[in-house]
């Protein structure tokens, strides 16, 4: 017996249609997948969580992660292109911050889910 499949094949067509109606179009799905992939990297996730506390420059983020400034800058470019962070220039300094509260909301939901699973184990 397979624990991930029905023992009997039967499609509930009305359920399938109901689910299909709420699904976003393929372009939106692709954007969502790309955004979630960007968050799924451990270093980028740590950056986003740190930026929830305060805006930081690439020098700070490189020190936080223990990577080169070039590596941190590459990660920031990706996060900026995914519309997860934005930057502002102050003289020679370039500071990054979360683009809005939704970024941290996604991370907090994931963190809460993991915490709940740990309690139930």
What does this structure look like?
The model has no long low-confidence stretch (mean pLDDT 94). The chain has one domain (13-120): Arc Repressor Mutant, subunit A (Orthogonal Bundle). Strands 1-3-2 form a 3-stranded antiparallel beta sheet. The protein is elongated and about 65 Å long. The two termini are 25 Å apart. It is built from 6 helices and 3 strands. With 121 residues, the chain is mainly alpha-helical. Helix 4 crosses helix 5 (69-81).
The helix/strand series, from N terminus to C terminus, equals: HHHEHHEEH
Number of helices: 6
CATH top level assignment:
Mainly Alpha
Terminal CA distance: 25 Å
Helical residue percent band? 55-70%
Kindly provide the radius of gyration, computed on alpha-carbon positions and rounded to a whole number of angstroms: 20 Å
Assign the CATH topology: Arc Repressor Mutant, subunit A
Structural class: mainly alpha
Secondary-structure topology with pairs:
Elements: H1 13-22, H2 26-39, H3 42-53, E1 56-57, H4 58-65, H5 69-81, E2 85-90, E3 93-98, H6 101-120
Antiparallel strand pairs: 1-3, 2-3
Keywords:
single chain; Arc Repressor Mutant, subunit A; 121 residues; 3-stranded antiparallel beta sheet; mainly alpha
